[in-house]
Amino acid sequence: MIPLSILDLAFINEGSSAADALHRSVDLAVHAESLGFRRFWLAEHHAMPGIASAATAVAIGYVAGATKTIRVGAGGIMLPNHAPLAVAEAFGTLETLYPGRIDLGLGRAPGSDQATMRALRRDPRSADRFPQDVAELLHYFEKPQPGQTVFAVPGAGLDVPVWLLGSSLFSAHLAAIMGLPFAFASHFAPDLMEEALALYRQRFESSQRLQKPYAMLAVNAIIGETPAEAQHAATSLEQHFVALRRGRPTQFPTPRAVSWSEPEQALIDRTLRYTFTGTADVVAAGIATFIKQHQPDELMIGAPLFSQAARRATLAGIAQKLMDRQSVEVS
């Protein structure tokens, strides 16, 4: 039996604002907390007209301030965009304000294109320093040593869980040798999921932070009262995903019937194959089978729907049906 958590991209719906998106995120987090989900994570994306969580630490603080018990964190912070000390200070501040509730997931991708990376004043080669930057960041969360001149305030000596995120074997291997928990982006990049999971578990080395491997996998869930309603709602995610792959990101689209080319449909089918769509019973059964097959230690679920009511209903349906099946424990 494993815990369930929520991934939210703070989608800016077509015709709405970033403020609307962040208010929707808070509403969803409060709802997730009431249902007993363990974590609520937001992610860093820049220059994206459909995502409001670019200033991820600020958005996390907004959500954490509106909730009481659910863990709130980054899934993730794209470390090549930031100095490790600045990240340690930001998340040290969050942990100071909301003790025992803050998670820090780190990604190696920039989360933006080259032009945006230049606007962020980052070196495009900074991803090559990711292992060293992770080690430096972890150091800033340790207690300062005598003679140490640079340390994070707040941050030093605080227990902020640090995760490595990825969609490749690189991050799986790095998480293993550094003894950190690992989250794989199977909700949009599933091709290497099984290989990465096996590599992480086989090569894991215990650390002061983690004694045994702890792997989280991610899926999407879209629940409707009927199969047709769910399939219609899923067209928002399909449009969003194809627009990204075309290099023309938009606000999160209204559900509408779309005819895809054969290559586009094949791309959707392959990369979004762990998007479970249908009635609550069907989605719960699919997720339960996924858990049984792949044995994650925790499951993170995205609910990428245009309607806030449908997002709330999807979370409620997952919690209720999965608890009824006794396949997982929401804790």
Give a brief rundown of this model.
This protein is of the alpha/beta class and 331 residues long. It is built from eleven helices and nine strands.
What labels would you give this structure?
331 residues; alpha/beta; TIM Barrel; 2 domains; eight-stranded parallel β-barrel; Luciferase-like_sf; Luciferase-like monooxygenase; oxidoreductase activity, acting on paired donors, with incorporation or reduction of molecular oxygen; Luciferase-like_dom; Bact_Lucif_Oxidored
Q: Kindly state the number of beta strands.
A: 9
Return residue spans where pLDDT drops below 50 for at least 5 consecutive residues: 326-331
Question: How many helix segments?
Answer: 11
- Using the coordinates shown, work out and report the CATH topology of the largest domain: TIM Barrel
The share of residues in extended strands comes to 5-15%
Strand order of the largest sheet: 1-2-3-4-5-6-7-9
The outline comes out as: globular
> What is the radius of gyration computed over CA atoms, rounded to a whole number of angstroms?
19 Å
The major β-sheet equals: 8 strands, parallel, barrel
Instruction: Name the helicity range.
Output: 40-55%
Terminal Cα span: 10 Å
How many structural domains are formed by the residues?
Answer: 2
Average predicted local confidence, pLDDT: 93
InterPro entries: Bact_Lucif_Oxidored, CmoO-like, Luciferase-like_dom, Luciferase-like_sf
Domain Luciferase-like: 6-289
Pfam families: Bac_luciferase
Family: To bacterial alkanal monooxygenase alpha and beta chains.
